[in-house]
Design brief:
This protein has 158 residues and is of the alpha+beta class. The protein has a domain at 48-147: TonB (TolA/TonB C-terminal domain, 2-Layer Sandwich). 42% of the residues lie in helices and 23% in strands. A hairpin with a 2-residue loop joins strand 5 (109-111) and strand 6 (114-116).
Length: 158
C-alpha cells in the first residue's frame, strides 16, 4: 500500500512538473528589469539632437556667478526653438542661455505621425566646477582674462 501511494505521488509530481515545463516552453520567458535594463535606440521626440554648449559669460565667471537659467519656448514642427522666454535665473547668465538655445535643434513632437509644435521648459546650467578649488581656479582665470582684455583695450585706445 505504501509502495502504491509512493508511486502515485511520484507519478503525479512528474505529471505536474511536465505540465509546468511545457507551459514554460509555450510562453516566452519574461526578463526582469534588473537582468536587462531598458535601452532606447534612436531619438525620442523632444530630444535635443544638435546645437552648441552655452558660453559662460566672462564677467559672470569672474564674479563667481553660477546657477541655472530656466527657459520656456516652443519646439516648432521643424524642431527649432521659437518664442524663447526666460522664466528664472541669474540676470548675468540669461542672455548667454537665450543665445545658446537659438542654436539648438530638436526632434519634433508627433501627433498622428505628423510633426507638431510643443511648448517646453529647459534649464541651461552654468557651473564653475565641482569642488571649491575648481570654482576658485575658474574664477581666478576669468579675472586674469578680464584684466588682460582691459590692458589690451587701454593700449589700443592710446
Amino acid at each position: 500500500m505504501k509502495m502504491r501511494r509512493l508511486f502515485l505521488v511520484m507519478l503525479t509530481s512528474l505529471f505536474v512538473y511536465g505540465n509546468l515545463l511545457s507551459a514554460q516552453q509555450d510562453t516566452p520567458p519574461v526578463a526582469s528589469p534588473v537582468d536587462h535594463p531598458l535601452r532606447v535606440s534612436g531619438v525620442a521626440p523632444g530630444m535635443r539632437i544638435a546645437g552648441q554648449q552655452a558660453v559662460y559669460p566672462l564677467a559672470a565667471k569672474a564674479a563667481g556667478i553660477e546657477g541655472s537659467v530656466l527657459l520656456k519656448f516652443t519646439i516648432s514642427a521643424e524642431g527649432k526653438p521659437e518664442d524663447i522666454q526666460v522664466l528664472s535665473g541669474p540676470p548675468e547668465l540669461r542672455k548667454a542661455a537665450v543665445d545658446v538655445a537659438k542654436t539648438w535643434t530638436y526632434r519634433p513632437y508627433l501627433s498622428s505621425g505628423h510633426p507638431i509644435a510643443k511648448e517646453i521648459t529647459q534649464p541651461v546650467n552654468f557651473r564653475l566646477g565641482d569642488t571649491p578649488a575648481e570654482k576658485a581656479e575658474a574664477q581666478a582665470n576669468a579675472q586674469a582674462q578680464l584684466k588682460q582684455a582691459a590692458a589690451q583695450d587701454s593700449k589700443a585706445k592710446e
